[in-house]
Amino acid sequence: MADKILPDGFEALESFQPYWGAMTTQERRERREAAQMAEIERFYAAMLDLASAAIAHLSQFPLGAMPAPSGRLMALLLALPHAAMAIELHGQPRAPFTPYPHNVRLVQGPAHFG
Amino acid sequence: MDQMIADFRAPTTDFTRMAGLDTEPVPTLPYRSPEYFALERKRIFKRAWLCLGRAERLPEPGSYFVAPIEVANTSVLVTRGKDGAVRAFHNVCSHRSNTLVLDREGSAGRFVCRYHNWTYRNDGTLAGIPDEGNFFGLDKQKCGLTPIAADLWEGWIFINLQREPEVTLTEFLGDFGERYRGIPYQNADKSILFVSHLDANWKVIADAFAETYHIPAIHPETIGATFASRENPFARPISVQTWGPHRSVSTYGNPDYAPPERAKVERLAYSNIATGNVLSAAGLDGMEVFLKHPAINPTKSRSWAVDVTWLFPNFQIDVSPGGFWTHHFWPITHRSTRWEARFYMPEAGDVWQRLQQEHYVARLGEILLEDVGNTERTQLGLDSGAKETMPLQDGEVMIRHSLHHIGKWIEADCVRDALN
Question: What CATH architecture is B2-45+175-419?
């Protein structure tokens, strides 16, 4: 039987997983930079709603050894701060007066999902 | 050491005069002239000690990394030998000068040139030559890798591209090297790395990280409220120090910053961790010894954000309440630069900490883009030649100090004269 996409209780996030569920920090940056504000707003609202539940679920596992559906949920949770850059800081997808596209790249991310 | 302290609430600060620098506008020519760049290459980058980062990048005997040094047309192979010693070599095979090591880093007891399989030990000696008998009286002892002077200071690796460095690393660092002794750098073995190739002179980019005057304008949303406040609206520095060609500025942080109500994710990410401020990678746990060091936050101000310490010529170490990070500004041409920013942070222990790190790194990406995205626009203006000079204010004293010492090194025929 194929894996579930996300753990039970997080079905409401499944439609966001293909785009926002990137496994590295740099890819999560790129997805947010390339998204329209309306898409960012939809993801931000849905993920924020379930953030506390997601943290509680994910805290059962070591960061380096999550079952695949939980790992995908972790990646979605980590996309939330990126969406927050647009929603809580800039009021638009990217920082005002910054070049886009650009080549400021995170070539080495944090341990686990970085 | 000259430590200069000023009250940011006074009508003016007085760092520039206290540092013994003049207050005239500075020339823009050094930022756009290929001829000036050629002098910097010869007189500065081929004579000064250059920092290549932390020794933790070489965790065990056999560890190595390769550092391209475009300004000197070379790449440097840095190794840790069986004896534990750190050595540096030109990454060039002794046979036909092919590039020896092709990857960026790793662990290996031997290096094999992919051209004809010449093999070297990681102490630089030649181990083997295929079909050696068909050469003509080759002396293998003389066919090792070409060494580059390397030394360590407080866990930082430095190299010098002079065959016989005119001054030791200790002499080059001078009083700075004493003042910054014994700092227990936290999480020095783990870092994240931002890299960009930018169409701007290396000094334009270094300057962008050397003053806080720009913060309210360039970073109004990302960090404006953490570096400036009603009592210090233009983010004036707290103190400035100089040691020969090296310099440091201690910057103001708004001690009352708290994420606004609407910043729900920021509040969530930081709800479970005390970091000191938003520029901090890690929590405050284990930071007491680090923060008590007399060189860090030298005035022990409550309103402290970051110390930006700029080692001549192209390396900056930043320390803040939650840790440290570095900037390297590697010149490529007079108007292109490879910039690397490395932020040291621990491996997250749980979901909360990993979420805080992601928020931190996401915001960093925005701040850094605001900073370096602006440098290419500055370079375009400099290239136009519209302005022969630029006026620098007192908070931009590190830029003036940098230009002063670059000029001094270019003038000086020997390094000791440049340092004195």
Answer: Alpha-Beta Complex (3.90)
The verdict on B2 touching A (C-beta cutoff 8 Å) is no
- For the structural domain made of B49-165, what CATH number should be given? 2.102.10.10
Q: What gap in Å lies between CA A10 and CA B336, rounded to an integer? A: 48
Per-residue model confidence as pLDDT tens digits over B247-263: 999 999 887 788 888 99
Is B265–A48 a contact, with Cβ atoms under 8 angstroms apart? yes
Interface contact B351-A77, CB threshold 8 A: yes
Residues for chain B: how many in total? 420
Q: For the complex shown, is ipTM > 0.85?
A: yes
What is the distance, to the nearest Å, from the Cα of residue B163 to the centroid of all Cα atoms in its chain? 23
Q: Please tell me which of the candidates A99, A107, A111 has its beta carbon nearest to residue B195.
A: A107
Three-state SS at B300: coil
B197:A97 CB<8 A: no
Residues A91 and A38: beta-carbon distance below 8 Å:
no
Using the beta-carbon criterion (under 8 Å), do B373 and A48 form an inter-chain contact? no
pLDDT in tens, B318-340: 998 878 999 999 999 999 999 99
* Per-domain residue ranges of chain A: 38-94
Please state whether the predicted TM-score (pTM) of the whole model is above 0.90. Answer: yes
Contacts within 8 Å (CB) and 24+ apart, B61-68: B62/B107, B62/B108, B62/B109, B62/B122, B63/B105, B63/B106, B63/B107, B64/B101, B64/B105, B64/B106, B64/B107, B64/B108, B64/B111, B64/B122, B65/B104, B65/B105, B66/B91, B66/B101, B66/B103, B66/B104, B66/B105, B68/B330, B68/B338
Q: How far apart are CA B116 and CA B93, in angstroms?
A: 10
Q: Identify the CA nearest to A73 among candidates A94, A88, A56, A92.
A: A56
Query: Domain segments of chain B: what residues?
Result: 2-45+175-419, 49-165
